[in-house]
Amino acid sequence: MIWNRRTWMTLAAISGFLAVAIGAFAAHGITDPQAKEWLKTGASYQFMHTMAILACATFMNVGARGARHAPALFLAGIVLFSGSLYAMALGAPRWLGAVTPVGGLLFLAGWAVMAWSARKVDQIEG
Predict the structure, then answer these.
(1) pLDDT in tens, 53-78
(2) Rounded to an integer, what distance in angstroms lies between the CA atom of residue 14 and that of residue 1?
């Protein structure tokens, strides 16, 4: 697989689809309050970081080439953060919740990469 903007945008579109589907499932298909909350939280974070992956493409278009590293961090964060919440909501053991903060750290790292990359936006060549 080639890790270019097209790939990241395709993965972001799939992730957005899944976030909406999981959010709808949480709203209409789950009765357990804790499971519902985990699904809603996971879907919310998944969706916001899906939008961040799409924003990376824009960053790269305007000269922030370092932003090309952020999508992998955001996607890994989605898998670990949201994925662990989804798994627990669907019956996985609670110890899996120990993985959730690792996903959160990956989200933070992705945002740090974006902030660092923003230094190159609108930079005057001289």
Answers:
(1) 999 988 888 888 889 999 999 999 99
(2) 16
Say how many domains are in the chain: 1
The answer as to whether 59 is a domain residue is: yes
- Amino acid of residue 45: Y
- Cα angle 32, 99, 109 (rounded to 5 degrees) comes to 120
- Give residue 12's identity as a one-letter amino acid code: A
CA-based nearest residue to 55, from 124, 113, 123, 126 = 113
User: Alpha-carbon distance 109 to 52, whole Å?
Assistant: 12
Tokens found for residue 33: 């309050």
In a domain? residue 125: no
